[in-house]
Specification:
single chain, 420 residues, mainly beta, Lipocalin, 2 domains, 15% helix, 38% strand, globular
Length: 420
């Protein structure tokens, strides 16, 4: 009968555990990418025109037929209904990996070359007029509403594409726990380029076959407890500066449900992506109450009202403490580097806190596997208040590391080994 020594068993277990905690190599990414992937729900994307950001919604499908071949369908919608399409882009081609991302560990930069096909369909009269105005009949193209147009080697001036050139798109690929992530550059909707690669991750894609039974509200209430839900990496998030202008910020989130009716949220702000040190930490503590079903976004999601009863600010370096102390409002003690200050119930206009500021947001909660999703932030950098400002879309996922230590395959392996 076959037996296994204690030393051999230990070495196998150590190998499996190391496999779980180390960053993926490019070869591992290439092996896992071969699949059909889809959006979990409609994704909120910014459409920045002039000085105003407008919300659009997007659905993505990607099929990687090999580690170097792809096909895709990307649909943009005018609103959250998912029925009023603006533009659809289909394509096939090759993916070329270009090296590791210097801001997201384990992610790899890549170029998508739509060399086999690129088909665009316009679904609104406004788009048809704009595209024809730019096209001026070049390459014999006249855009017609809802008519697919093969532009693989043809010019599309409205999108900056020239004749006899393939569409090229730059992005990144990151895979964790059977979730595939691509990247985003900023909150203005700018596309990545070779010189301006992605700075953060988009909402993840899941395998086509990975549909799950939606949680009931009672199941959701139980599932979110007992974990610390945190960002996978620094997130690209919309905010406003002191002049009310939309800006790109980089933050991480750590959300804890302290009980069935109370939560703690820690937002840590960074000056940029990559391995930079934080400059400010904000902690909000308060009650939350469940509102109505949010299945119009994704089955199993529910709206919830998160109120703020306590607020703490911690400057994380001397420069930030000095900046906060400029024009310090009456009744607030001077800030010190690394020292938490209680600002509950106090006004601080420099941080957007006034007597008129709302003390709650109308958010959303969705949980699947070891991931938790809140509602996507409004593209204008404002708050999820009042209810009319709900975005009806999921933002990037938070992960509970304690629930993601083992995937099912490796867990079964460990159980078998321990029984030998």
């Amino acid at each position: 009968m076959f037996t296994i020594t204690y030393l051999t068993k230990t070495l196998i277990i150590m190998t499996l555990v190391i496999k779980l905690v180390t960053s993926q190599t490019l070869d591992e990414i290439k092996a896992q990418i071969i699949n059909d992937w889809k959006s979990i729900a409609l994704e909120l994307v910014p459409n920045y025109q002039g000085e105003t950001a407008y919300p659009e919604y997007q659905r993505r499908q990607w099929n990687f037929t090999s580690d170097s071949g792809f096909s895709t369908l990307i649909e943009n919608f005018e609103d959250k209904s998912g029925s009023n399409r603006k533009i659809s882009i289909q394509g096939q081609g090759e993916i070329a990996f270009q090296g590791a991302s210097d801001v997201i560990s384990g992610a790899y930069l890549c170029q998508f070359n739509f060399s086999k096909s690129a088909i665009i369909t316009l679904h609104t009269d406004e788009f048809v007029t704009a595209f024809n105005g730019a096209q001026q009949g070049q390459d014999g193209i006249t855009w017609v509403k809802d008519k697919p147009q093969d532009v693989t080697k043809l010019a599309v001036p409205a999108l900056g594409k020239q004749s006899n050139q393939f569409f090229l798109a730059y992005d990144l690929i990151y895979i964790r726990d059977d979730y595939l992530y691509m990247g985003e550059v900023d909150v203005f909707g700018n596309e990545a380029t070779l010189d301006n690669p992605p700075k953060g991750l988009c909402a993840p894609l899941i395998p086509f076959s990975d549909d799950e039974t939606p949680l009931t509200l009672d199941e959701l209430k139980e599932a979110i407890l007992g974990g610390v839900w945190q960002s996978l990496t620094k997130e690209v998030r919309p905010s406003k500066n002191n002049q009310g202008k939309l800006i790109t910020t980089f933050q991480t989130r750590k959300l804890t449900f302290l009980s069935e009716s109370n939560y703690s949220l820690v937002l840590t702000s960074f000056p940029g992506p990559g391995q930079t040190s934080p400059f400010l930490e904000m902690e909000v503590i308060g009650p939350f109450v469940w509102e109505e079903d949010a299945s119009q976004v994704v089955a199993g999601a529910y709206f919830a009202k998160f109120s703020m009863s306590q607020l703490y600010i911690t400057p994380m370096n001397d420069e930030m403490a000095t900046n906060l102390n400029q024009g310090l409002p009456e009744g607030i003690e001077p800030f010190k580097n690394g020292q938490k200050a209680n600002l509950t119930g106090k006004e601080f206009p420099a941080l957007g806190m006034t007597s008129d500021s709302p003390d709650y947001e109308s958010d959303m909660v969705y949980q699947r596997q070891n991931r938790l999703y809140l509602q996507a932030r409004p593209v204008d950098g404002g708050m999820l208040y009042p209810k009319e400002r709900r975005t009806y879309s999921l933002q990037r996922d938070l992960i509970d590391p304690e629930r993601s230590s083992f995937n099912l395959f490796l867990l079964l392996n460990l159980i078998v080994i321990l029984m030998l």
